[in-house]
Automatic annotation (TrEMBL):
Organism classification: Eukaryota, Metazoa, Chordata, Craniata, Vertebrata
Annotated protein name in UniProt: Sister chromatid cohesion protein PDS5 homolog A
GO biological processes: cell division; DNA repair; mitotic sister chromatid cohesion
GO CC terms, sorted: chromatin; chromosome, centromeric region; nucleus
A Pfam entry, by short name: PDS5
Gene that specifies this protein: PDS5A
Length: 1337
């Protein structure tokens, strides 16, 4: 029975008294007044309690009898009694009275009712102490109130809210972990009835519930939190509207004063959502409003909240409320950095708890992975890696791709996080195979990517890759067999670039090891100034191989002092770097050295950290004799077919070949570890295999490691010699080379051995069977180079009678006339391969002799020059194919460059021969340019070539392919950097500045450009613009820094050249005028780009006498060879509309050749201008833009088609049929230009094939000369009948082809513009029908 929430009848409010006016007490209970003692009062009250407890609602007589007593117990005397036991008993009586008299209470006054319920509420505090003797009575009181719902009477009171708030606060304060479930249940019943049966919940009452959810209160009393949680769940339908109103007031209207909990709204939302999302049904749209707040801190708070709501494990908020989810995702792009950071941090939990949302997150994480803030990019990586480490299935390939990109981030912290994260994934899923083969395949790219980073310039990147390799890719703490198995299959599965990076890593570590070894050797020598200087240089070199080289220098010096003082430490270090040190010994040495240098008082010791870096780089933690033996056993298993190759995802053939390549690399860095009969027996087995690569690698391993075979392993020696002889005579060219070098390296009687190979080979040379000629030529060349004293003279007759006369000067076969400028190696004819090897033999023979006493070098250089002038067709019989001619041009240019590396031959190379060699870098064949540039760079980087050869890179400004220009620029940067660093590190180098200082390339470059065959008219603006581009291509790199006032020095050199004459043609006015004009262009560029060039030159430059005469005393040359107008045009004028590239391998002035005459005829035809407007004021950007068509259309040779227009009068000709697919870019249709280029555009992807036109053409017009000059057509031909299709379809010039279209001008098209063939009047009408293709499509 409970009290109804309705007005009481009048009779009930009046009360009832006994007939005699006295209070009736239960039998045996005397009157309870203030006259008795407290104990007596308690005793009597207990009997009253017992009576009321036994009464029920149906006892009408008793109810009437005890009504005065009920009124008496509600008097102030009892409600304010100081004794708590009295108050408790009275409260129990009152609770029973409410039960008995329900639904009508015997109390009529609202004030009295309020006092009574406040009194009862205060007594409920006694529930707190469950160990109290009176606890059962308190529990009875609570149970009675809850069962009867007595508090519902209060709904009629005006200030009932005060009672309810007091009740709720009391119950939440007394609940504790000692209460059983019944107590909690009665409390819930009591409170829920008030919430659910009332007219609403006031804010104060709501606060009394919600305050228990705040983290601070939650932590203090978890039971009150649990009580509030269950209460809210039970009353969700009623209380949801009240909660919504509260959050609406605070979040939307901003009325924080409505509640003391306003500052905790986000904590409350989080807790309410966890309790029951239905509680926040109306609140979520308000959060969407808050996400768009103008206050960044407010948005941050909402993002933090929603991150928890969306990210919690059981949350389906993202699917239930898509608008809010999409709005939240928008915060990934918030302008406020902390908001973006918080969004990214959330993504990790979301990926792990809700994989289905990964698709939504991917695009936003992609944008944030490129965020300008380092911390955000870093956290994107952490987010993805954390999820991936939990379960790889949680992240898709795109997310892993973001981490992959960040390995190249500009910030070290981000790069490091990305690299380490990927390394951990690789170890977990590939090495340990924790998620099966599918997961391993998903991240198999990681090993390659991590090793590719070794190509980066930063020493920090390199060191981290080394650390990752030693700890994650091939963990050094594995047992030897397991470690080598890991390395064996890793090496077999790496891509070629990763293999190169790994090889380079071992090479760098080995080099650093040798530096430390040399430093220890210097410690053994007596102290001297030279010794100290050498030691300082060695310390600087070592410091450059450590992080932060600036600080490392100080630490390395300190370490060097310690080494000098501590002999025991020196011996430990010597053991560490000795060739015989095992991996276990290395580990002990590193720990011992670190222990000696550690300082217990200094927990963070930067000096010790730096030394550890050094020790980790030089310690052989992977490879020793035992490891090599294990590798060889693995390879033997692969050969026998008993290995786990297929299970590891590698074919047996690949495993064998890669394993041998791995051993070959290690034979360079750890040769001593190979010295065992078992290892060499396995290598002999490889020599007998059919795989040519395997045999070649095995020979090279013998060459690198077999120095003690002759003395220690005679059985191996006797087996090896006949195999090497056989390979030198009948093996592949590479095997032959390695076999000859192997014999020379490891046998003492090498002269006898080499003679046994030389004599039969030299007698059996037969040019009629070129297939059997290549290997003998390779062997003979290397023998003559390695043992010149013995074989130089016999070789001379072979060279004269066979190599030159019989082989090079004869074309026995006719090449395939397919028009290709380059063919794959396997398609090159044997005869041409033999000729290429013959050219190499000549060079090796001369390099072995190292003298020119017999003038053989002069003859060879003339032969090579003739090869270049004739475009590779030395006999000029036109029997050789275009692709074969390209091979021979490359061989000839490379040969001259190789001879120039030997000082005695460099002196006799004439300027004309040097210029011919230089023009190979502008060859019409892309591969020729590419390979030649690589060879040039390789030799320059090693300081093998004279400085003048660096000037050749200036001609790369004319290359039509952007990648080639970019490569050339990188080569220049590298070369200049190496030369400057070499001068700094070697004090003695100052004596050789003329050959080392990069700025000294300027006079060579000026001379080279002055003799550019395309530079025919010194006042032609277009040609001067070409010259300016080439000059700036080099000067831009040189002028990056003004070191030692180098700008003024370069300007002074250019000025001094004007005071000399061209040593090549000192008495030729036109030649000198071109030289001075190039000087003026250089001065113009230097003056415009540097404000420092007018300072005094630091020293007087020295000009090379080979190219310039001595300045004459009275000679003054203050003439300006370019006009002011031209100067302005060069620097700021209109964009150059013409193609830049002209002839490559261009002819120098030669007797009997027609002079080059510039065409002045008027151009006709419907030429389409395909060049976008250029801005020459932006420096060399004009060069980049002018070749835009080349870079966006097809590709070079087989990738960069070009077109030429072939016109037949009166016919519409399909340009697809009448096509010449030439060797370079789809860049310019320049027929009659300075460079004489004949170009055709075809569809992208066509090969460089010259095809004869299908149409018949008119043969009228002046005939072409029988042998056109290299690199250009005679101008007379271009002025004749343009329909002479035979000539139009013959590009007889190389490489310098720039992207350019035609640009019409009133007087005709300027030279250098892309032009259509000139037409006679009768043919003009045919032009519009010719379909032109836009080169910039």
């Amino acid at each position: 029975m409970d009290f109804a929430a309705q007005p009481k009848p009048a009779a009930a409010l009046c009360g009832v008294v006994s007939a005699d006016g006295k209070i009736a007490y239960p039998p045996g209970v005397k009157e309870i007044t203030d006259k008795i003692t407290t104990d007596e009062m308690i005793k009597r009250l207990k009997m009253v309690v017992k009576t009321f407890m036994d009464m029920d609602q149906d006892s009408e007589d008793e109810k009437q009898q005890y009504l005065p007593l009920a009124l008496h117990l509600a008097s102030e005397f009892f409600l304010r009694n100081p004794n708590k036991d009295v108050r408790l008993l009275v409260a129990c009586c009152l609770a029973d009275i409410f039960r008995i008299y329900a639904p009508e209470a015997p109390y009529t006054s609202h004030d009295k009712l309020k006092d009574i319920f406040l009194f009862i509420t205060r007594q409920l505090k006694g529930l707190e102490d469950t160990k109290s003797p009176q606890f059962n009575r308190y529990f009875y009181l609570l149970e009675n109130l809850a069962w009867v719902k007595s508090y519902n009477i209060c709904f009629e009171l005006e200030d009932c809210n005060e009672i309810f708030i007091q009740l709720f606060r009391t119950l939440f304060s007394v609940i504790n972990n000692s209460h059983n479930k019944k107590v909690q249940m009665h409390m819930l019943d009591l409170m829920s009835s008030i919430i659910m049966e009332g007219d609403g919940v006031t804010q104060e009452l709501l606060d009394s519930i919600l305050i228990n959810l705040i983290p601070a209160h939650k932590n203090l009393n978890k039971q009150s939190f649990d009580l509030a949680k269950v209460l809210l769940k039970r009353t969700v339908q009623t209380i949801e509207a009240c909660i919504a109103n509260f959050f609406n007031q605070v979040l939307v209207l901003g009325r924080s004063s409505v509640s003391d909990l306003s500052e905790h709204v986000f904590d409350l939302i989080q807790e309410l959502f966890a309790i029951d999302p239905q509680l926040l049904l109306s609140v979520m749209p308000q959060l969407e409003f808050k996400l768009k707040s103008n206050d960044g801190e407010e948005r941050l708070a909402v993002v933090r909240l929603l991150a928890k709501l969306f990210g919690s494990k059981d949350s389906d908020l993202a699917t239930q409320n898509r608008p809010l989810w999409q709005c939240f995702l928008g915060r990934f792009n918030d302008i406020h950095v902390p908001v973006r950071l918080e969004s990214v941090k959330f993504a990790s939990h979301c990926l792990m708890n809700h994989p289905d949302l990964a698709k939504d997150l991917t695009e936003y994480l992609k944008v944030r992975s490129h965020d300008p803030e380092e911390a955000i990019r870093h956290d994107v990586i952490v987010t993805i890696i954390t999820a991936a480490k939990r379960d790889l299935a949680l992240v898709n390939d795109q997310l892993l791709g973001f981490v992959r990109e960040r390995t190249l981030d500009k910030r070290w912290r981000v790069r490091k996080e990305a690299m380490m994260g990927l390394a951990q994934l690789y170890k977990k899923y590939c090495l340990h195979g924790e998620a099966g083969k599918e997961a391993a395949e998903k991240v198999s790219w990681i090993k390659d990517k991590l090793l590719h980073i070794y190509y980066q310039n930063s020493i920090d990147d390199k060191l981290l890759v080394e650390k990752i390799f030693a700890q994650y890719l091939v963990p050094h703490n594995l047992e030897t067999e397991e470690r080598m198995k890991c390395l064996y299959y890793l090496y077999a599965s790496l891509d070629p670039n990763a293999v190169k990076a790994l090889n380079e890593m071992w090479k760098c570590q080995n080099m650093l090891r040798s530096h430390v070894r040399e430093l220890l050797d210097l410690h053994k020598q007596p102290t001297s100034e030279a010794n100290c200087s050498a030691m300082f240089g060695k310390l600087m070199t070592i410091a450059k191989n450590l992080p932060d080289p600036g600080k490392a220098q100080d630490f390395v010096k300190k370490f060097n002092q310690v080494l000098g003082d501590d002999e025991k430490l020196r011996s430990q270090l010597e053991l560490l770097i000795s060739p015989t040190c095992s991996c276990k010994q290395a580990d002990v040495c590193v720990r011992e050295i670190a222990r000696k240098l550690a300082n217990p008082k200094q927990p963070t010791n930067p000096f010790l950290e730096m030394v550890k870096f050094l020790l980790e780089r030089i310690a052989p933690v992977h490879i020793d004799s035992e490891a090599i033996s294990a590798l060889v056993k693995l390879m033997n298993k692969s050969i026998e077919g008993t290995a786990d190759d297929e299970e590891e995802g590698v074919s047996p053939d690949t495993a064998i070949r890669s394993g041998l390549e791995l051993l070959k690399v290690l034979s360079f860095t750890h040769p001593t570890s190979f010295h065992s009969a078992e290892t060499y027996e396995s290598l002999l087995q490889c020599l007998r295999m059919e795989d040519d690569k395997v045999a070649e690698a095995a020979i090279q391993i013998f060459r690198n490691t077999g120095h003690k075979i002759e003395t220690d392993l005679p059985q191996i020696r006797s087996t090896l010699i006949p195999i090497l002889h056989q390979k030198a005579k009948r093996g592949t060219p590479h095997q032959a080379k390695q076999a000859v070098h192997c014999i020379h390296a490891i046998f003492t009687n090498k002269e006898v051995q080499l003679a046994q190979i030389f004599e039969p080979l030299s007698r059996s040379l037969n040019a009629d069977v070129p297939e059997q000629l290549i290997t003998p030529l390779v062997s003979l060349g290397h023998i003559s180079m390695l043992a010149p004293d013995q074989f130089a003279s016999p070789m001379k007759s072979v060279v004269a009678n066979f190599i030159v006369k019989d082989l090079l000067m004869n074309d026995r076969s006719t090449g395939e006339k397919n028009g290709k400028l380059w063919s794959p190696d396997e398609e090159v004819s044997p005869e041409v391969l033999a000729k290429v090897q013959a050219i190499k033999l000549l060079v090796r023979w001369l390099l072995g002799m190292k003298n020119n006493q017999s003038k053989s070098a002069n003859s060879t250089l003339r032969l090579l020059s003739a090869m270049l002038v004739s475009e590779g067709d030395l006999t000029e019989q036109k029997r050789i194919s275009k692709s074969d001619m390209s091979r021979l041009r490359l061989a000839a240019g490379s040969a001259i460059m190789k001879l120039a590396q030997e000082p005695c031959y460099h002196e006799i190379i004439t300027p004309e021969q040097f210029q011919l060699c230089a023009l190979v870098i502008n060859d019409e064949c892309y591969q020729v340019r590419q390979i030649f540039a690589q060879k040039l760079h390789k030799a320059l980087v090693k300081l093998l070539l004279p400085l003048e050869y660096m000037a050749i890179f200036a001609l790369c400004a004319k290359d039509p392919v952007k990648e080639r220009r970019a490569h050339a620029r990188q080569c220049l940067l590298k070369n200049i950097s190496i030369r400057r660093e070499y001068i700094k590190q070697n004090p003695m180098a100052t004596e050789k500045l003329l050959s080392l200082l990069p700025e000294y390339v300027v006079p060579y470059m000026i001379h080279l450009l002055a003799h550019d065959p395309d530079f025919t008219r010194s006042q032609d603006v277009d040609q001067l613009r070409d010259i300016k581009e080439c000059l700036w291509f080099m000067l831009e790199v040189l002028m990056t820094k003004n070191e030692n006032n180098s700008h003024a020095f370069m300007k002074k050199m250019a000025e001094n050249i004007k005071l000399t004459r061209d040593a090549q043609s000192p008495d030729e006015p036109k030649t000198n005028e071109k030289l001075y004009t190039v000087c003026d262009v250089a001065l113009c560029v230097i003056n415009s780009k540097s404000a420092m060039c007018n300072a005094d030159s630091p020293k007087e430059p020295v000009l090379p006498m080979k190219f310039f005469t001595q300045p004459e005393k009275d000679f003054c040359n203050d003439k300006n060879y370019i006009s002011e107008e031209t100067r302005v045009l060069l620097l700021t004028g209109k964009p150059k509309p013409a193609g830049v590239l002209g002839a490559v391998n261009k002819p120098l002035s030669a007797t009997g050749r027609k002079p080059y005459v510039r065409s002045t005829g008027t151009e006709t035809g419907s030429n389409i201008n395909v060049n976008s407007e250029l801005n020459p004021s932006t420096g060399n950007r004009s060069r980049e833009q002018s070749s835009e068509a080349a870079e966006t259309g097809g590709s070079e040779n087989e990738e960069n088609p070009v077109r030429i227009i072939s016109v037949t009068p009166g016919k519409n000709i399909d340009p697809v049929k009448n096509k010449e697919i030439n060797s370079d870019q789809a860049t310019q249709g320049n027929i009659s230009s300075d460079r004489g280029k004949k170009r055709t555009v075809t569809a992208a992807g066509a090969e460089n094939i010259q095809q004869k036109t299908d149409e018949k053409v008119d043969e009228s017009g002046p005939p072409a000369p029988s042998k056109p000059r290299r690199g250009r057509r005679p101008k007379s031909e271009s002025q004749g009948n343009p329909t002479k299709n035979d000539d139009v379809n013959k590009p007889n010039s190389k490489g310098r082809k720039r992207a350019a279209g035609s640009q019409e001008s009133p007087g005709g098209l300027e030279a250098g513009n892309a032009k259509a063939p000139k037409l006679q009047d009768g043919a003009k009408k045919a032009v519009p029908a010719e379909r032109q293709i836009d080169l910039q499509r």
